[in-house]
Amino acid sequence: MAGTERNTARGEFALIDGILKPLAAGTPAALGLTDDAAVLTPAKGKDLVLTKDAMVAGVHFRESDMPGDIARKLLRVNLSDLAAMGAEPVGYLLATFWPEALPLSWIQEFADGLGQDQEEFGIGLLGGDTVRTPGPLSLSLTAIGEVAKEKALRRNGAGAGDLIVVSGTIGDGALGLLALQEELADLDPTEQEYLEDRYHLPNPRLSLGQALVGRATSCIDISDGLIADIGHIAEESGLAAVIQWKKVPLSDAAKIAVESDDALVERVLTGGDDYELAFTLPLDQRDDLVKLAKEGGVSLAIIGEMVEGEGVRVMQEEGVEMPISSSGWQHF
Amino acid sequence: MAGTERNTARGEFALIDGILKPLAAGTPAALGLTDDAAVLTPAKGKDLVLTKDAMVAGVHFRESDMPGDIARKLLRVNLSDLAAMGAEPVGYLLATFWPEALPLSWIQEFADGLGQDQEEFGIGLLGGDTVRTPGPLSLSLTAIGEVAKEKALRRNGAGAGDLIVVSGTIGDGALGLLALQEELADLDPTEQEYLEDRYHLPNPRLSLGQALVGRATSCIDISDGLIADIGHIAEESGLAAVIQWKKVPLSDAAKIAVESDDALVERVLTGGDDYELAFTLPLDQRDDLVKLAKEGGVSLAIIGEMVEGEGVRVMQEEGVEMPISSSGWQHF
């Protein structure tokens, strides 16, 4: 109960707050974390984009993961949601549920990871809450971004005939998790490591998302799995999506993995954790892709098109549909 | 790991989302929870106020508490932070960490509690995340409000000679917790129940907070305890606070409790969980208090004044300082 917490944990909370407080130093809206809330003056002509993700040790990351990596992934999966809406990140609020046993040095490394990514993405801590839990380390982050008024990228704007485009390479996150679980033992250590890194530290495609504003007809980040996420676009747009398996961009490591084990194809298509962007583009803007890839700082690949109908079909080759048993992961 | 979660919990997550989704139905900014984030168009001439609180079963509430009460308290403690800044609530994001054993009927009651308070406070769900935890039920809520540009109430504006004013009655929350812990057995059941209700369901003083904008020189909600929270105002304003114990407003139940046990005085002053507002008002605005109480829909009491110096002193009577061993609870 709160009463007990009051008496025992006070000094330690002050120490944790001392570790987290510097993360708000560069964010005037945080008011130095001295007040009951942050006060943000919205930029003129902008909408605010708000997203919140939660992670639990043993469920969404491994307790043995590096504290800094956990922190950065937490931040980056939220930034990826902002990227998918075409937003530029502004700041974030953080709720941390700390187990008793976690040493302050662990929390310091966690904060250092956040600090590193704050610099990388030009954002700062706005506020939050620190509590104690008898359960596993749990985290919740609310990220806030800005996008030109009424210009946020949505899932529901795709048109029939639009090209389906993805950034980067697909499947690395899911294969990286398998590698961490030692289920890709045949793969060279270098390739395993590449995939594991991709799993641990996604790259939110913020520049690409912002470049897509006013151009893409729909956009989503690939967190649930390529098929599930393109399925979201299809469903919200009232259309079907047809994906050509042979056009889905794979990293060298993923190619080798898939070539050595056919069963991994489905994992690549449904596994999630890629945090690349999938978006739709009118056919007549096909020539813009080179420019968009440059602005986004990431390769882009046309993998299919939107058609009348519903659902997602993956074509193994011309006229041959691939059977998929599970479409991936859906969440709130 | 995420992979396991994918395979086992998917259907159940869809059911939980089905329970929570209607909470976003009246909030256009939530986009029906169909997209990667919410998109909020800020009102003209307003600043946004952002706050985030976290709660854990067994730490911040009892596992046996009513699900609807837990939900409403979670929302209300955040709204109380908005009240302390003078903000009008706009909406909220919710992260829920559900233990395996929790039945869907429990989650439905939790959602019903949120729905009830959404109507009461004219707000809606903007988005969030639903995850599974092997630990206790954990919750994090981010509340968003609006206040006239640069007019948010702060803690740092009190002047020497300002009156210290509190709303409602003080100490009920802390005594309510004691009653729940069966430590106030001498008290009548009716009084115990009154105090327990005050602990379970705080009333965020939103109307009062908004009425104080442009009038109060500082404001805070009493969550950590009267002395600790007025201490925050004193510290941020670079002043000391002198409180007259005899002017601290007590409910009838609290009066009876304190009369029967002197030791409870300190609990009233340091216990927290009141979620009343404490604010400072220039002496020459003393006559506005009647009007402010009317606008705020709550009684107001002058309990002391700000003076040069530092710290918080509580006077038992004229010239006699009360010894206080612990000033209350501080958090991030």
Largest interface: A-B, 87 and 87 residues
Structural class from helices and strands of chain A? Answer: alpha+beta
CATH architecture of the largest domain in chain A: Alpha-Beta Complex
What is the domain tally of chain A?
2
Helix content of chain A: 25-40%
Write down the overall geometry of chain A. globular
Summed over residues and divided by their number, the pLDDT of chain A gives a mean of 92
Which ranges of chain A are low-confidence, i.e. pLDDT below 50, for 5 or more consecutive residues? 1-8
Query: Which CATH C-level class of the largest domain in chain A is it?
Result: Alpha Beta
Rg of chain A (C-alpha, Å) = 21 Å
How far do the termini of chain A sit from each other?
30 Å
Oligomer: homodimer
Strand neighbour order, sheet with most strands of chain A: 7-9-6-10-8-11-12
CATH level 4 superfamily of the largest domain in chain A: PurM-like C-terminal domain
Compute the number of strand runs of chain A.
12
